Automatic annotation (TrEMBL):
<keyword id="KW-0597">Phosphoprotein</keyword>
<feature type="domain" description="Response regulatory">
    <location>
        <begin position="5"/>
        <end position="142"/>
    </location>
</feature>
<dbReference type="Pfam" id="PF00072">
    <property type="entry name" value="Response_reg"/>
</dbReference>
<protein>
    <submittedName>
        <fullName>Response regulator</fullName>
    </submittedName>
</protein>
<dbReference type="InterPro" id="IPR011006">
    <property type="entry name" value="CheY-like_superfamily"/>
</dbReference>
<dbReference type="GO" id="GO:0000160">
    <property type="term" value="P:phosphorelay signal transduction system"/>
</dbReference>
<dbReference type="InterPro" id="IPR001789">
    <property type="entry name" value="Sig_transdc_resp-reg_receiver"/>
</dbReference>
<dbReference type="InterPro" id="IPR052893">
    <property type="entry name" value="TCS_response_regulator"/>
</dbReference>
<feature type="modified residue" description="4-aspartylphosphate">
    <location>
        <position position="75"/>
    </location>
</feature>
């Protein structure tokens, strides 16, 4: 099985490091890409700013070197633009509208959950508190989203 990309968008440095550690222990092949704010995430996925080369450089077989993530783990409380606005923009853009997005948040506010689903998240999960719970979380989401879930056939195609 080839490694699939997972994009983690998390502004809290401690949470980022714990997620990196939990994913490093995961046995399912993956590439974890970590970004810390909403603007950076959108630029990365749409190929703007310093991520423009993602879409213009190619590999030896003339394929773009960049492939869309198989999963986005998106925090709600992000600097610059929040997770709900990132989700809105992802769903509105033709390159990103089909990407699976799991909201990971410490919020248990009903309105945050409702807003996440209204704007197209595929799942809403409260951040685990203990590292053992985080490891279980990472194993479960990796298994489901990277091995069980079937992506649409046109997934990752970079058509405007």
């Amino acid at each position: 099985m080839s490694a699939k990309n997972i994009l983690l968008v998390e502004d809290n440095p401690d949470d980022r490091e714990l997620m990196k550690l939990a994913f490093a222990r995961e046995e399912i092949p993956h590439n974890l890409i970590v970004l810390s704010d909403g603007i950076e995430a959108l630029n990365y996925l749409i190929g703007q700013e310093h991520f423009q080369d993602n879409f213009t450089q190619t590999t030896g077989n003339n394929q773009p070197k960049f492939s869309m993530p198989a999963l986005i783990l998106l925090d709600l409380n992000l600097p610059k633009i929040d997770g709900i606005e990132v989700l809105r923009r992802l769903r509105a853009h033709p390159k990103t509208r089909l990407l699976p997005v799991v909201i990971i948040s410490s919020s248990n506010e009903p309105q945050d959950i409702i807003d996440s689903y209204i704007n197209g998240c595929n799942s809403y999960i409260r951040k685990p508190i203990h590292f053992t719970q985080l490891q279980k979380f990472v194993k479960e989401i990796s298994t489901y989203w990277l091995t069980v879930n079937q992506l649409p056939p046109v997934f990752g195609v970079l058509n405007e």
